């Protein structure tokens, strides 16, 4: 499994990952896990490669998930701006079991603030 967390242009390396997993001639069909990508941007117009992700979700429904947080347009459960960590928190019950597997890899690319946000999201679960 691969869990990818990105802000803005931090999406670029994950685009390469996903193309390698699902479209490259030498590797397509070999990946058997789940690739789950979270993207955070300020505006919906900033959703890079959005049509590509939607198409991939249709083509590989059991292997690709895509969720995003649009900070200036979406609100978290507290009514504040929605950031990547808030979107991740909505799925902790699905993500935490995946993260405990030795074959799951988590990658972050983008703003440094995501790191503390993910500690906020998973800290309570890790302490149990």
Describe it.
By secondary structure, the chain is α/β, with parallel strands linked by helices. 38% of the residues lie in helices and 20% in strands. The protein is built from five helices and four strands, in the order βαβαβααβα. It has helices at 12-22, 50-59, 84-89, 92-99, 114-127; strands spanning 2-7, 35-41, 64-70, 105-109. The protein has a four-stranded parallel β-sheet with strand order 3-2-1-4. It is globular, with a radius of gyration of 14 Å. The relative contact order is 0.23. The mean pLDDT is 91.
Secondary structure layout:
Elements: E1 2-7, H1 12-22, E2 35-41, H2 50-59, E3 64-70, H3 84-89, H4 92-99, E4 105-109, H5 114-127
Parallel strand pairs: 1-2, 1-4, 2-3
Poorly predicted segments: none
Order of helices and strands: EHEHEHHEH
Percent helix among the residues? 25-40%
Summarize the main sheet. Answer: 4 strands, parallel
Give the overall average pLDDT: 91
What would you call the structural class? alpha/beta
β-strand amount: 15-25%
Number of helices: 5
Distance between the termini: 23 Å
| Beta-strand segment tally | 4
Question: What is the general shape?
Answer: globular
Radius of gyration: 14 Å
Provide the spatial order of strands within the biggest beta sheet.
3-2-1-4
């Amino acid at each position: 499994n691969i869990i990818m967390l990105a802000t803005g242009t931090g999406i670029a390396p994950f685009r390469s990952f996903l193309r390698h997993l699902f479209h490259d001639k030498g590797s397509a069909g070999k990946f058997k896990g789940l690739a789950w990508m979270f993207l955070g941007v300020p505006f919906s117009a900033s959703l890079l490669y959005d049509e590509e992700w939607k198409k991939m979700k249709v083509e590989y429904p059991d292997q690709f998930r895509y969720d995003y947080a649009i900070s200036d347009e979406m609100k978290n459960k507290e009514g504040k701006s929605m950031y990547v960590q808030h979107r991740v928190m909505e799925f902790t019950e699905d993500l935490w079991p995946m993260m405990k597997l030795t074959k799951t890899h988590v990658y972050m690319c983008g703003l440094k603030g995501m790191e503390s946000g993910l500690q906020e999201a998973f800290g309570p679960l890790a302490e149990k």
